[in-house]
Amino acid sequence: MVTDGDNDVFKVLYSAVVSSLGDNNVMVILDNHISKPGWCCSNSDGNGFFGDQYFDPDLWITGLTRMASMFNGVPNVVGMSLRNELRGPKQNVNDWYRYMQKGAEAVHSANPDVIVILSGLNYDKDLSFLRNRPVNLTFSRKIVFEVHWYGFTDGQAWKNGNPNQVCGRVVDNMMRISGFLLDQGWPLFMSEFGVDQRGTNVNDNRYLGCFLGVAAELDFDWALWTLVGSYYFRQGVIGMNEYYGVLNSNWRETRNSTFLQQISALQSPFRGPGVSEVHLHKVIFHPSTGLCVLRKSMFEPLRLGPCTQSEAWNYTPQKILSVKGTYFCLQTDELAKPAKLGIICTDSNSKWEAISDSKMHLSSKAPNGTAVCLDIGYNNTIVTSTCKCLSKDNTCDPESQWFKLVNSTRRSSTMTKPSSLISSILNFPAKDFLWKFLGSV
């Protein structure tokens, strides 16, 4: 039995955690995860849908109202997710609208400043019912929909199938049942994704490259499951390891530093409000490394490097990839040779097309007519190789050849041209130049 004293202790502890996060500039989304304490989730745990054994809709709305009121005016509490992973045999569309709309109104009434986040059906994968029947609320401009996507969402499809074909099929399905909301102008939040951080799970490893390509292309916000490396107590086990955790079991080191590199490019938006720093352009993103194609100089080969230093590329209707503001375009030379930049951009070796079901193989034709794909060579140089793993073969790994053309308005640290840099230096008073120079060291 929960007493008023228990509630008072909960409020103090919960508020202290939220306050500490705010002191460290961390924003908080309050997430109503489960009603009966325990590990989440299954179709038969009694927590899945309105009217289940432990899921009383009226009590749920009362709880949402109390939490929204409790954090009204707390600036780092920016949103409330109404319910995690609705599921189970009772789930249905009509009750979803009935109760989710009531819950949204309750939160808004108690706390008009927070974003209201609505989850879908079938473990938060399915929002397809919204395509022709939008929510009917008294407020607008602060509604966000959320979706979850893991490798195991599709069973062992990634391990057992051809990665390109599985990626194409899974992404098409995700866009059909949830991603379409972006096309309708709704914000969509990928509120859970994650992988086995040990790097030995083939299913997760293949899924991750596909996910990162889509996440960069759609530029959606996301939340990772999970930071924690272990649990005090889970499913009857004390100190259980969390292999999806970024931290290891003692919470002192990361399990997989490569993973942090992979997601680093996605930790800042490529475009959107507050990121319209330069005109729209493309970056060439390599999901399996989290890096982008860079040009150090005309005398060095193209390489992968931090996306903060990426070139700005144009991609024309004629399928030419050119460095924005220059006459130089990306070209293939010979098989297994570095890709190069040239100024004669009308031949077939200057045309690049996204092929394969994954739409992440950038393919061109070498001067001898051989079809090639961008690939990664020694020391992260950009080369062209025979296109691989396009179909059928489920033992092949195509990820070195997976590239994604991503729209961006983000300024690169390399976007100041030498001529404009020299001009700006000449126009600075000496003391200002010295200050700026010292500030950049």
TrEMBL record:
InterPro entries: GH, Glyco_hydro_5, Ricin_B-like_lectins
GO BP: polysaccharide catabolic process
Record bears the keyword Hydrolase: yes
A Pfam family matched in the record: Cellulase
GO molecular-function terms, A-Z: hydrolase activity, hydrolyzing O-glycosyl compounds
Residue ranges of every copy of the Glycoside hydrolase family domain listed in the record: 14-227
Signal peptide: none
Keyword terms of this UniProt record: Glycosidase, Hydrolase
Homology family: Belongs to the glycosyl hydrolase 5 (cellulase A) family.
Protein name from the UniProt record: Glycoside hydrolase family 5 domain-containing protein
Lineage, broadest ranks: Eukaryota, Viridiplantae, Streptophyta, Embryophyta, Tracheophyta
